[in-house]
Amino acid sequence: MSFGAWIELLASGLITGGIYALVALGLNLQYGLMRILNIAHGEFLMVGAYLTWMVQTSFGLSPLLMVPVSFVLLMALGMAIHWLCFRRLSATSPNLDIFEARGLMVAFGLMFLVQNAVNWIWGGDLRGYEFMTEPVRLGGAQFAGNKLLVFVLAVAFALAMMALLRTTLYGKGVRALMQSPVGAQLVGINTRVLHPVMFGIGLGLSGLAGCLLSMAYTISPSMGEPYTVTALIVITLGGFGSMGGALAGGLLLGLIEAVGMHYTNPSLKALLSYVVFIGVLLLRPEGLFTRKTRKA
Q1: pTM over 0.70
Q2: How many domains is the chain partitioned into structurally?
Q3: Would 296 be classed as within a structural domain?
């Protein structure tokens, strides 16, 4: 295998991993902050993809225009869902364990609701459009222009989200709540404002990932669920609540899948992911990129 072919193989893994990281960041934000395991997360990625496809094919507008629009629309939808569903659950659940269980059931309902709504509105056929399909040569390797753009934008937005959490007042409040919910509320952090905003940002990142995916791949109403499962694997690799771990875990999983499929069979992609998932859970359940906590 030539050096150029190796570069292309690794680059394809990183491109896929960039999308994985972006989806996982949103899910990690929701679970790490609010203990909402949003199984419907990938379905909103699908919504972002379909909205971008519809705007491009119906109005001929560049899908790049939908990058901020899909984020804002899905963020607003996420805030509405939190207000309608999870805020009520939080107020009526006697403890965190019951809230997590009820939230999981609501998320399952949302998953089937969104899937069937998209299937009813746009049908079940594969959809797609052409955008920046011209090949780009870098050194001795050749890449599709749209996939390179998807990778650059996915990593850029992931890094921007991490910077937001590290440098802004809202971000510091989120980190404080992840580390100690009771202590953060005692010092005056308002969860009634922070929770819906961060849940909305989580769905916004998912919609953004769907917008980027539609630029390079075909889309369908069944595309969301596998990305939810992959996001859970990425979060396990990086560590629950770790934003940097989600980015590193996404890129690592993309590389593992690309190299593994090259030496085995593309149909074994899911098997490779689950082997990594189970191995990390058994050997390092706190994640590959988090420090081990010592027992007293």
Answers
A1: yes
A2: 1
A3: no
